[in-house]
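Hey, I'm writing a tutorial for new members on how sequence and structure tokens pair up, and I'd like a real worked example in the thread rather than a made-up one. If someone can provide the structure for the chain below, I'll link this post from the tutorial.
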Amino acid sequence: MEDFFSIGELSHYQNISKQTLIFYDKTGLFRPAYVDPNNGYRYYSANQLDELDTILILKKSGLSLQKIKELLKHYTTTSSLKVLRDQLEVIDKQMQELKLVRSRLAQRCTQLESVYLHEGEETPHMEHIPSQRLFTRPVPPPCTLREISIATKQCFAQSFQEHLPIFFQSGVIVPYQHILEGRYTEASFVFLPIEETNHSQNIKELPEGTCAVIYHKGDYLSIGRSYEKLLQFCRDKNLEILSDAYEFCINDYITTGDENEYITKILFYVA
């Protein structure tokens, strides 16, 4: 048809699939100027090219198809400016969130890389620990691995819901008395390291200090052997243990499906 474009031609010119154009037609977003009643072929007029350009640019700007459809119903400079300004705010927020996510992933990579530089070493040693914050959640009795796993998932879920600036890492606090009794896997709290935040509930401040540290490599049920090494190290060095045990998951289910590759950093504050 003269002065009209077939769906195939429009698809080619605009670099958009026929299926997308058919979808736009069915949803009422962008309908053809003419549909042949005999064969159902869709045809588009030349003045519709600008409208399709507008839809594609707005979509590329991040607007939903529903939002675009609503805007085109009352299409003025004023209405467009409001929608574009609103979208700028959305993009700014997304950029902030992406920067946060990127920093978390970078921190995770740095941790893994630094530990693998010392692969095979499970030797207790001293470390100076900077102050840090933990977003905590109690583990309900009987404090088995099942309760710990559920509490960790709930901790992550709450942090995502409340948009808390957590790191992509989890850990647990095991009471010192549990360690002395050989109950190495019975944690009283789970935690997520977190940046400074106005959120005032369930935040535990870990002070800067000197710690006895060991990296446990292997499945979690075998962690007792690393605790025994760390306790013996403290006895040999005449170190007084001042805190419960803090376990930071360096490599866990988030980054490997092989429990033999798990790495857990265990520390006690000592004097």
